[in-house]
Amino acid sequence: MALLFTACTEDVATPEVPTATVVIQPTIQPTATLLPYEAMPGAYMGTFYGDPVSSVALYEELGKGVAISASYLDFESPFVEGMASSLARAGRISFITWEYWGTRDPAYEERPLDLILDGEYDDHLQQWGERLRDFDKPIFLRWGHEMNGDWYPWAGANNGGGVLDGFGDSTLPDGPERFVTTYRYIHDAISAAGADNVLWVWCPNAPFDNMAQNYGSTTGGWNEAVNYYPGDEYVDWLCFDGYNWGTSSYGQTFNSSWTSFDQIFGRSYAELQAINPGKPIIIGEYASTEDGGDKAAWIKDAYETMQTDYPQIRGVIWFHINKETDWRINSSPESQTEFSEAVAGEYWLDEWPGMQE
Question: How confident is the model at residue 219 (pLDDT cuts 50, 70, 90)?
């Protein structure tokens, strides 16, 4: 879901990537065989259908299909194969954002992730793993996205933050350490059920440096995105989310301004490359408002820039909904026309391979 960042307005430069404070000690093998990003023929187009009926008609008008279809599911809901199967028949892969919204026990209000770690959801996780296994086609699973903000109950800021003595290793900040431990716990439970068809997505919010400064601590840099990384054995696709809030009314609640694609993603992309230069990257959510600038020109720049300067990005999901502001592709005729032209080339892939087999 579209959530805020503080707009970044300075020029993009290659950052000095912070050293991770979380010690990664993976214990299992990856659950999905995945080509290195260089072997992929282009970048897969995706969308979140905020209004499914109008979205389907829109993509018919654009003359370009969708390879990745994004959805949001409550952590406590069951995995329902029907939706994923219908998308597969259309040549699309499902991209599920799995959201853990709260606790069943008030004793866990201060540290909601501990409820998962204490085994409360073990049976539920086994059921998900079995149903994902039985689906038997590739499927993206994004648990714990935007954990470097403070607006979700799974965020590091809401699970101990920079405290050093409340969980696990007393030398590591509790918030990121608790998140990493929970991510691995969920991954291991799903994998133990035999669901080796899952593509695991790890997805902080961009720009990473703004998140570290605004939602972390002035001491120790505990909220750096890299501190939340579960390890290469637990992640198939690197990811980030980011939005151009412009001068939209909602954006003004945190003093946003018109922000280019590079200003949102440039430095964070370099950090993802430093974490792993071979794994593919997907933008889990992105879009631009019309307020404060030229959205059509923003779209043109974004797609040209991704193709020329961001080769590790191999999936992009447009957040197509009129929500905090009008993020939709067709928020104006000019934006729709420019989007259609921007994605017309063969580089932008509109079908996920093998889904219809």
Answer: low
Instruction: Give the DSSP letter of residue 268.
Output: H
Sign, CA torsion 244/249/250/256: positive
d(CA 250, CA 298): 19
Question: In angstroms, rounded to a whole number, what is the distance separating the alpha carbons of residues 212 and 209?
Answer: 5
Helix (H) or strand (E) holding 69: strand 68-74
Query: Rounded to an integer, what distance in angstroms lies between the CA atom of residue 129 and that of residue 21?
Result: 31
User: SS3 for 273?
Assistant: helix
Spell out the residues 6+ positions from residue 325 whose beta carbon is closer than 8 angstroms to its own. 245, 246, 248, 249, 250, 251, 289, 290, 291
Specify the range with the lowest mean pLDDT, choosing from 26-40, 68-82, 274-288, 331-345.
26-40
Would you tell me how many other CB atoms lie within 10 Å of the CB of residue 294?
A: 15
Strands 198-202 vs 139-143: parallel, antiparallel or unpaired? parallel
- Is 146 in contact with 205 (CB distance < 8 Å)? yes
| Helix ranges, 166-220 (H) | 174-192, 208-215
Domain 42-349, CATH: 3.20.20.80
Give me the DSSP letters along 278-340: SS-EEEEEEEE-STTS-HHHHHHHHHHHHHHH-TTEEEEEEEE-BSSSB--TTSSHHHHHHHH
224-244 average pLDDT score: 97
Contacts for 55 with CB less than 8 Å, ≥ 6 apart = 47, 49, 320
Longest dimension (CA), the chain: 56
Residue 83 DSSP one-character state: H
DSSP 3-state assignment of 244?
Answer: strand
pTM given for the model = 0.90
Residue 83's identity, in one-letter code, is M
Write phi, then psi, for 60 (nearest 5 degrees): -65, -40
Tokens coding 344: 């017309």
- Omega cis (within 30) before 207: yes
The residues near 232 (Cβ < 8 Å, ≥ 6 apart) are 24, 26, 30, 276, 279
pLDDT at 53: 63
